[in-house]
Amino acid sequence: MPKMKTHRGAAKRFTTTGTGKLRRRKAFKGHLLEHKSSRRRRRLSGPADVHPTDVKAVKRMLGL
Questions:
Q1: What pTM does this model have?
Q2: Which residue segments constitute the domains of the chain, with CATH numbers given?
Q3: What is the C-alpha to C-alpha distance for residues 24 and 45, in angstroms, rounded to an integer?
Q4: Quick one: DSSP state of residue 34?
Q5: Which of 32, 30, 6 is nearest to 14 (CA)?
Q6: Tens digit of pLDDT per residue, the chain (64 long)?
Q7: How far out from the chain centre does Cα 24 lie?
Q8: 44: which residues sit within 8 A by CB, 6+ positions away?
Q9: Rounded to the nearest 10 degrees, how much is the dihedral formed by the CA atoms of 39, 40, 46, 48?
């Protein structure tokens, strides 16, 4: 059986920490930021953990 290919879209969106946890970028920070408060923009910055119900699917896409 051939090797599984990495899902390239997932590879660009998720990263793995040193301990094996999955991180993702928060939504709603791409554009249209002018009307959002600085507090909201600041909270959207920085990574977040992938939800436990999605970890199995994301790991499969990443080939982990």
A1: 0.81
A2: 8-62 (4.10.410.60)
A3: 11
A4: T
A5: 6
A6: 898 999 999 999 999 999 999 999 999 999 999 999 999 999 999 999 999 999 999 999 999 8
A7: 2
A8: 26, 27, 28, 29
A9: 130
